[in-house]
Design goal:
Blueprint: E1 2-4, H1 9-12, H2 17-24, E2 25-26, E3 35-40, E4 46-50, E5 57-58, E6 74-80, E7 85-89, E8 92-96, E9 101-104, E10 111-113, E11 119-125, E12 133-135, E13 141-145, E14 154-160, E15 171-177, E16 188-190, E17 194-201, E18 209-215, E19 218-224, E20 228-232, E21 239-242, E22 247-254, E23 263-265
Parallel strand pairs: 1-3
Antiparallel strand pairs: 2-20, 3-4, 4-11, 5-10, 6-9, 6-11, 7-8, 7-10, 9-12, 13-14, 14-15, 15-22, 16-23, 17-20, 17-22, 18-19, 18-21
């Protein structure tokens, strides 16, 4: 379990590149044959990557949780960024397609991943339990956003978001940039009621995403490669531009589940 402690905005404003990356960039989530965990003290979320190889890969319970099972007090959304593959939850089997989501309820005891999947998990504490549910990549709420003139035409799929599939607090979805579009969210915004994490994927080997973070008046940046994640505090903007088109998974947890509850940060006010 990689442990990431929270930092105040005034502290982040003094950080150099290496410290910013050590605090907020997760570079090693996907290791063949392992489940890798990163614990963020922002809303106590956990990011994990599971890469089954030779056989089924059982999800362990990190010692740091001090619980018998990972899901004793947690829920999670799991999105497959690999090929279609099965996930087994307490004896029930779900075929999770590429870019599909599996919501796993609080109280689950056993989760096992099969190849050739490549699974990203975002987990937060939960005070109630809703049914474990599979959501296909074409299901949920689909939004077409942005404009070619501002280089941010994108398809946003709200897979786990205050709708038919219930969760305690986790919200999650996949956004894909149109060819020729590079910006994900601009104008930028913050939402002081919840934190967010971005997992960038489908980023070509010779491409990168420049992720902007920090307070609107004290912006910083991270250079992000394929299958790397960014932890975004509630007070921070989260916007990025790529050198080529890409996809990303956004996931949120915190005070509420209102997607539009955000505080805008106009481009003209960024510094």
């Amino acid at each position: 379990m990689d442990n990431r402690y929270a930092a105040a905005p005034e502290h982040v404003a003094t950080m150099r590149t290496t410290e910013l990356r050590d605090r907020f960039l997760v570079t090693d989530l996907f290791t063949p044959g392992e489940v890798s965990f990163t614990y963020s003290h922002y809303d106590r979320v956990i990011l994990a990557g599971a890469v089954p190889t030779d056989g089924p890969l059982a999800m362990p319970t990190p010692e740091a949780l001090h619980t018998e099972h990972f899901f004793d007090h947690r829920e999670a959304g799991i999105i497959n960024i690999g090929e279609d593959a099965e996930v087994h939850v307490d004896g029930e089997t779900f075929l999770v397609p590429r870019k599909g989501l599996l919501y796993v309820r609080r109280g689950t005891r056993e989760v096992t991943f099969d190849s050739p999947g490549r699974f990203y998990l975002y987990s937060a504490p939960a005070h109630t339990a809703y049914p474990t549910t599979l959501v296909g990549p074409g299901d949920g709420n689909v939004l077409e956003l942005g404009d070619q003139e501002t280089s941010n035409r994108r398809t946003l799929r709200q897979l786990l978001h205050n709708g038919d599939v219930k969760s305690c607090q986790v919200m999650m979805g996949v956004t894909t940039l149109a060819p020729g579009s590079m910006w994900n969210t601009m104008p930028a915004h913050t939402h002081d009621r919840r934190m967010e994490a971005y997992l960038y994927f489908d980023v070509e080997d010779d491409a990168r995403v420049i992720h902007l973070m920090g307070e609107p008046s004290e912006t910083r940046h991270l250079v992000v490669a394929n299958e790397q994640a960014v932890i975004s505090p509630s007070w921070s903007i989260h916007s990025g531009v790529g050198t080529k088109a890409y996809s990303f998974i956004w996931a949120m947890a915190g005070e509420n589940q209102e997607f539009t509850d955000m505080d805008p940060a106009p481009v003209t006010e960024l510094a």
